[in-house]
Every structure is written in structure tokens, then in C-alpha cells.
From TrEMBL:
This is PAS modulated sigma54 specific transcriptional regulator, Fis family. Residues 145-374 form the Sigma-54 factor interaction domain. The keyword Transmembrane does not apply. The keyword RNA-binding does not apply. One of its GO terms (molecular function) is ATP binding.
Length: 452
């Protein structure tokens, strides 16, 4: 605090200017100015001398019941509190507990003895206290893969079991559905966890570049190859290599990949010496490799080598119970940056989010949350803060149809979501309704209909 005063120019002109006024006038002017802030003053005996309007509002305790009386234990000030920030918990008249931040300045008399102090209270901005959210429980967070869908829980089990073996894994799922997260989880859970995890997207590079990236090249292998370059296989030695979009790999490279999987060695581009490697492959694709084989685009022998353990990741629209979980997860991450704190989602906006088909899956959902943080302000995520495609009824309608909703599944999902929201908000229906973006009335009606 003292440092700040200096850097703001705590200059002699200012001291001279202050010296013109008596301290009582100054203090009362300052307090008038801050009337709406939660400020209070206690004397050395902890008796309340001043209790601002803001204190009444924040704590529900009236001036007539506080001023001239000893303060409650939470509000006492001691020498050690000087310039300190503390967190205090307070029960409100309605029984709700709130957490407040208390910052105080202690005053000393002319002889240097403790003479009481001034404190300011503000609502603590800790999202954990203020944001009612459906946050993932430990069971719903599998190495950063969040889900409460039973299908995904089966996937978690397969990952866990497969990780303990050396088997090659093929993950199939739409773009943005979390295939790379699965590959990372397998690596982290395997005996290879302390060796590198490297990833490459086979669709992103030309055939020559991909070959050189994967297998490396020797100096002079082609124009521009001015020195030896070690490939990903060599750099991932002892670890795991994630081959994303493996179905896009050109045929000639498929043969080379098959050889590494079978022989555990390869020859770098332009080289004549085989290099031995010990790398576990986790591959991923959004296509059916079987179809690609049928179409003559993918080697059948390689397909069998890759899909020793096939894992299918369902798209987000088929695990709708994850939508609100993931929305609140990403909101909570952004809240931590303190630029904006979202505590609620407008019910209409939530309805659209739940009904959307999410062609870009979790990545798209994250982008939507990011968009809302970029374009909006305030504690409620509003309809107007969703990207334009959500506000065009025609498009959302089409997506709704293409999502082919199963009404029975919806009911189950809804019941599970309501149960969880109630559980996590300790049975407080108002907060649980907020979390799910429903009005209290709708929430009540749905609970009744679902027998909850
Ligand atoms: N279940 C999940 N829980 C939390 N975050 C997730 C989940 N699924 C995906 N994500 C996040 O979504 C983004 C996309 O995930 P990821 O890159 O793993 O998808 P992908 O299927 O490999 O996509 P692509 O095929 O387009 O490369 C990442 O930021 C990832 O952290």
C-alpha cells in the first residue's frame, strides 16, 4: 500500500493541501462519498462508531443495532489487521452464508497506541463460493476428460485397461470430440508416462513432409536437407506417438508405418541405416477405416495392426448430459481470469445450448463460451452473447432435426441433470434451477413430472 502511494506521486504539494483541513472534516467528506460502500469504523474497545449504508445492505444489520454497540466477532479489528485482507463468513437473514473480503486500516493515537480502525467489506470474488455450477466430480473427470455419460464411463474403463498394456489403440470420433485427450490419458496411465508424448496430424502435411516429420531424413536427402533431421519416431522413443487423422495418410507412407509396427525399425528418408525404435502408437480418425479399406484408400493389414484396441468416442450431441457440465467447466476456467464472472445462464440461452447439434463437439462448445466472455459483460450469460448461428432460428431448427433426439433419452438425461444440480447445490432448488438455466417454475414442474 505504502509503495503504491509513492508510485502515485505522494508529493509534498498533496501533504500541504491536506494540512489545510482538520481530520474530522476530511474523514466525514470521505465517508459521505463512500456512503454506498460497505465501510465501518470501530474504536479501540471494538465499539462500532460508524456503520455505512453499504454495511446495512451487505450484512442486513441496521445502524441502530450496531452503532454505539460492541461489534460482532467477525468485525473486530486488531493491530495485526493493519492493511490486511481477510476472508470472513457471514450468515444472512435468510440463512444463506456469504463470504466477504475484509480489508482494514488500523489507526494509532498520538502516543502510538492502538486506537481502532476502518474496514471495507466487499463480496469475495471466489467463483467456488459464488458460482452455483455443475462441476465435475472426481468420478466425472478422467484425466481431464469430463463426462457424466455412462458410455463415456465405459470408455474410461477401456482407456484404463488398455493403458496398462502395450497394445496399439485406434480412437474413432468426430472432430473436437476429445481424441487427443484420450491419447494423452493412455500415455499418462501407461508405464511410458515419463517418456515423451508427441502428436502429429497426418492430414496437415504433404506426403513428403509427413514422411520426413515421422521418420526424419539424412543430410542431402533432398534439396534443402542441409543437416540430419530426427523424426518423431526417434524423438518419441520410449514414449507414445499420437497419429491424428491417420486415414488421410498416403498409401506409400502406410507401408512404412506398417513396417515400424511390425519390425520396430525404419530407415530415415535418404538414409541406408535402420533405426530401432520402441514407440507406442495411438492413432485417431473421424472416418471408418473399414470404409476406407473398402474404397481402396487404406491398407487392410495396417487397419488390423492399428485397431488392436478400438475406442469409439460418441459425439457431444449423443451425450447431452455433458453439455451443461462442460459449459460450466469452461465458464469456471474463464471466471478464474477475473475479467468477467458468469454466475448464471439465461434460460433461453441454455435451452439453445442444450438443443444445439454441436458439429464441432467439445472444441466448438469451448469456443462458444470463449465468445460469450469476449463479447458480453455481467454475471449472466445472455442469448445475445451466443454466436450468430444460435440466434438464427432456421439454422438451429435444422441442427435440431439432424441431432435426431430420442425423447426417452432426453427424459433420462434431464432427470440425471436435475438430480446432480440439486445434489451439488445442497438441495437448494433456486440455485439448481439457475445452473440448468430453468425458471423456478419450470424446474418445479419438471421435478414433479419426473417424480424427483
Ligand atoms: N470430455 C472433455 N472434457 C474436457 N475437455 C474436452 C473434452 N473433450 C474435448 N475437450 C477439449 O476440446 C478440445 C478438442 O479436443 P481434442 O483436441 O482432444 O479433440 P480431437 O477429437 O482430437 O479433435 P481433432 O480430431 O479435430 O483433432 C480440446 O481443447 C480438449 O481439451
Amino acid at each position: 500500500m505504502k509503495q503504491k502511494k509513492q508510485s502515485l506521486g505522494w508529493v509534498s504539494e498533496y501533504s500541504e493541501w491536506l494540512a489545510q483541513f482538520d481530520s474530522a472534516t476530511l474523514l466525514s467528506k470521505m465517508l459521505d462519498l463512500c456512503e454506498s460502500s460497505a465501510i465501518y469504523i470501530v474504536d479501540k474497545n471494538q465499539q462500532v462508531l460508524y456503520w455505512g449504508d453499504g454495511m446495512e445492505k451487505l450484512t442486513g444489520l441496521r445502524q441502530e443495532n450496531t452503532v454505539g454497540k460492541p461489534c460482532l466477532a467477525e468485525f473486530t479489528l486488531a493491530e495485526a489487521d493493519d492493511n490486511q485482507e481477510q476472508s470472513i463468513k457471514l450468515s444472512q437473514a435468510n440463512g444463506d452464508k456469504i463470504t466477504l473480503k475484509k480489508v482494514s486500516q488500523i489507526l494509532f493515537d498520538r502516543l502510538g497506541a492502538f486506537a481502532g480502525g476502518i474496514a471495507v467489506l466487499t463480496e469475495a470474488l471466489a467463483p467456488a463460493t459464488f458460482v452455483p455450477k455443475v462441476l465435475a466430480t472426481a468420478k466425472q473427470n478422467f484425466h481431464g476428460i469430463l463426462s457424466r455419460s455412462p458410455t463415456m464411463h465405459d470408455v474410461f474403463q477401456i482407456i484404463q485397461n488398455a493403458a496398462e498394456t502395450e497394445a496399439t489403440v485406434l480412437v474413432r470420433g468426430e472432430s473436437g470430440s476429445g481424441k487427443e485427450l484420450v491419447a494423452k490419458a493412455i500415455h499418462t496411465l501407461s508405464a511410458r508416462r515419463n517418456a515423451p508424448f508427441l502428436a502429429i496430424n497426418c492430414a496437415a502435411l504433404s506426403s513428403n513432409l509427413l514422411e520426413s516429420e515421422l521418420f526424419g531424413h539424412v543430410r542431402g536427402a533432398f534439396t534443402g536437407a542441409i543437416k540430419d533431421h530426427s523424426g518423431l519416431f526417434q524423438r518419441a522413443n520410449g514414449g507414445t506417438l499420437f497419429l491424428d487423422e491417420v486415414a488421410e495418410m498416403p498409401m506409400e507412407l502406410q507401408a512404412k508405418l506398417l513396417r515400424v509396427l511390425q519390425e520396430r525399425n525404419y530407415i530415415p528418408v535418404g538414409g541406408n541405416r535402420t533405426i530401432e525404435v520402441d514407440v507406442r502408437i495411438v492413432a485417431a480418425t473421424h472416418r471408418s477405416l473399414r470404409e476406407e479399406v473398402k474404397n481402396g484408400q487404406f491398407r487392410e493389414d495396417l487397419m488390423y495392426r492399428l485397431r488392436v484396441v478400438p475406442i469409439f468416442l460418441p459425439p457431444l450431441r449423443e451425450r447431452r448430459e455433458d453439455i451443461s457440465l462442460l459449459i460450466w467447466h469452461f465458464i469456471s476456467q474463464h471466471n478464474d481470469q477475473r475479467v468477467r464472472i458468469i454466475e448464471k445462464i439465461d434460460p433461453q440461452a441454455m435451452r439453445l445450448l442444450l438443443d444445439y447439434a454441436w458439429p464441432g463437439n467439445v472444441r466448438e462448445l469451448h469456443n462458444v463460451v470463449e465468445y460469450a466472455f469476449a463479447v458480453g459483460r455481467g454475471s449472466t450469460l445472455r442469448l445475445s452473447e451466443l454466436p450468430p448461428e444460435f440466434r438464427e432460428p432456421r439454422i438451429v431448427g435444422i441442427q435440431k432435426q439432424s441431432a435426431k433426439r430420442n425423447p426417452a433419452l432426453d427424459t433420462e438425461d434431464e432427470a440425471a441433470a436435475i438430480r446432480q444440480a440439486l445434489e451439488q447445490n445442497h438441495g437448494r432448488a433456486g440455485l439448481a434451477a439457475n445452473v440448468l438455466g430453468m425458471s423456478r417454475a419450470t424446474f418445479w414442474r419438471k421435478r414433479k413430472a419426473l417424480g424427483l
